Amino acid sequence: MAGGEKEITSVLKERRLFKPNKEFSQQAHIKSLREYERLCKKAEKDPETFWGTLAKELHWFKPWKKVLQWKPPFAKWFVGGKINVAYNCLDRHLEGWRKNKAAIIWEGEPGDTRTLTYQDLHREVCKFANVLKQEGVVKGDRVAIYMPMIPELAIAMLACARIGATHSIIFGGFSSAALRDRINDAEAKLVVTADGGYRKGSVITLKEKVDEALKGSPSVEKMVVVRRTNTPVKMRRGRDFWWHDLMKDASDHCKAVPLDSEHPLFILYTSGTTGKPKGVVHTTGGYLLGTTVTARWIFDLKDTDTYWCTADIGWVTGHSYIIYGILSNGVTSVMYEGVPTYPQPDRLWQIVDKYKVNVFYTAPTAIRALVKLGKAWPERHDLSSLRLLGTVGEPINPEAWMWYHTIIGKKKCPIVDTWWQTETGSIMISPLPGAIPTKPGSATRPFPGISVDVVDRKGAGVKPNIGGYLIIKRPWPSMLRTIWRDPKRFKNQYWSDIPGVYFTGDGARRDRDGYFWVMGRVDDVINVAGHRLGTMEVESALVSHPAVAEAAVVGRPDPIKGTGIAAFVTLEGKNKPAEKLKKALKAHVTKEIGAIARPDDIRFTENLPKTRSGKIMRRLLRDIASGNETVGDTSTLEDYTVLATLRQEDE
Length: 651
Ligand code: ATP
Ligand code: MG
Hints:
By secondary structure, the protein is α/β, with parallel strands linked by helices. Helices cover 31% and strands 23% of the residues. It folds into two domains: 501 residues, ANL, N-terminal domain (Rossmann fold, 3-Layer(aba) Sandwich); 118 residues, ANL, C-terminal domain (GMP Synthetase, Chain A, domain 3). The protein contains 20 helices and 31 strands. The mean pLDDT is 95. The structure holds adenosine-5'-triphosphate and magnesium ion.
C-alpha cells in the first residue's frame, strides 16, 4: 500500500440531492429510508439470521448446518448445505409460468438476434453439460472460456456450474499470452472458444489465439469451438471439436449436481488496473445469495422488467449481473455482442428502444465516451421505457452523472452508482433506488448486512468528510474465498495492511449523512504540499468544465513543491486544444475546489490509457508525466498506441 499515515484531504463540494419519486418508491422492493435502516439494523444485530433468512429463498438440495464459519481471513458460508447455481438460475423457473419467458435476448453486433426462453436455455445447458462430461470434464476440473458475447458463453458457464466444473472466463480481447498465463494459472483441462467474434465491424479471431496459447499450456486436453464468424480455422484432430457437432447428439437430460455450498464456482482475474491481475476464487451458495439479493433490491427487479447490463461477461459485472444474479431472479437479461458505438454512436439507445429496456446498467467510461459524442445520438430514440439506471467500474464524476440523469434518464430514473469489486462478488455500496436519495458522484450507503467503514492506517474510524481507507469489517456471503492456489497472497493483499479487516485498496470519505464517496485508489493518491488528494475529486472538477469530457490526474515530481499535478484531458465534441483553454481549466479547478488542486500541467489527448474493461490506468500516466519508462504489467492495456501517442506528444 502506497502513501503515509495521513488522511486524504477531501476537496469536492457536491451538494445536489435527488429524492426518489413517490411512484417509484411505492412500487419498489425497498420503499423508504426507514425500511432500509430497519434492514440495516436487523442485519447489524444478527448478521447470520439476516443472511440465513434470505438464503432460504434459494433452492437447496440439503440445508446448511451453520450459516458462517469464520477463521479470519477464511470464511465458509452455509456450511454443510448442498446447492446448484444452474438449478437456481434455470430449473426453478421451469416449474411455473416462467418456463416460456425470455431468459436471454441476444443481439449480435451485425444485428442478428436470438431469444432463449428459460426452457430453451435449460435444454442447451443440459446438452452442453453432457458434452463436457463426455469430453472428460469432472467435478472440480477447470474449464477456460474465451468467447465473444454470444449465448453459447452463457450456456457454457451454466453448464460448468451444473456439473461442478469451475469456470475461468477470460475476456475475448486478451492476447494469446495473457490467455496462456490465465489458463496455466488455473490449469484448465478444456477450453471453450469460437472461431471469432465481431468487434467494431471486423472479426477478431479467437480460435487462432487459443491455438497460439496452447503451445504453452500443457494442461489443456480438449477445445470446443463455436462457429460464429465463419472464419477459417485449423482443427487439430483429437483435440479440437466443433460445438455444433458435439451438441447434435447430446442428450438434453442432465441432473444438476448437488454441490457443497463452498464448491468453487469460478475463478476470475481482476481487471489489472493497479498491477498484475489476481485469480479471485468465488464459491457457490454465498455468491449466489449475494448476487441474487443485491440484483433484486438494487435493480429493483420485477418479472415484467427487461434488464440490460452492457458489461462483457469476461468481467465480474457480467458474471454477477448479466447471468447469475439476474437469471436466479427469473428476469429477462439482454446480452449484446459488440461495441457501444457501432455502426453509429447511438447503438446502445437503439437497443434500449428496440427491446424496451427498463433497467440499464453501464460503466462511467461508456457514459463519458457518449458525452463526448454529443446528446443528439440518444435524442434520436425513444428511451421512455427506462425506469432505472446504474453505473459501475469507476467513480462517476458528478457532471457525467448529471448527463446520464438528464439526457438518458429524462430526470425521472433513479441512478444506482454501485461500488464493488471482483473480490466482493456482489455490490457492496449503492443506493436502494426507492429508498435512498442520491447525490451525484456518491455510491451512497452500504447494502444491508455489509459493514463498510473509512479508517486510518491503524484501523481507527475517521471523522465525517475526512478521507481514509475503505474497508469491510465483517465477512459477507459473496466475498472471495482466496486467490487461486495462493492463500498467502490473499492474506497479504487484502488482510494485512489494516489489522483485522478487509482492505479494498480504495480511498473514500463518508459525509455527515453517512454517504460514501469513493475518492479513487489509494495507490493513485497525490501528495502535494502536505496534502494527500484523491484523483476523483480533481478529475471531477475538470470534468465539470463544459469543454471537458474526461480527465485523469496524477502526481509528478516538481523541483519546488516536491510533487506537482499533471492532468490529462479529453475534450468534448468540437472543442479544440488551446493554450487559452489550459489556462481556463486551471482557473476553473482553482475556483471549484481551491488552489491546492490546481494542475501544474495540462495535456490534451484524444484518448487515455485504459484497461480492457475501460478503466483509466493512472500508473501508466504517472510514468509518462514524470518522463520515466513504463514499468510493471501492461498486459491488460486496451490500446498500446495510446501510450505511444502520449509519449510522442511528450517529446
Ligand atoms: P486490479 O485489482 O487488478 O487493479 P481492478 O481493481 O480495476 O483491477 P475490478 O475488480 O474490476 O478490478 O474493479 C474494482 C475497482 O473498481 C474498485 O476497487 C474501485 O476502485 C473501482 N470501482 C468500481 N465501482 C466503483 C464505483 N461505483 N465507484 C468508484 N469506484 C468504483
Ligand atoms: Mg482491484
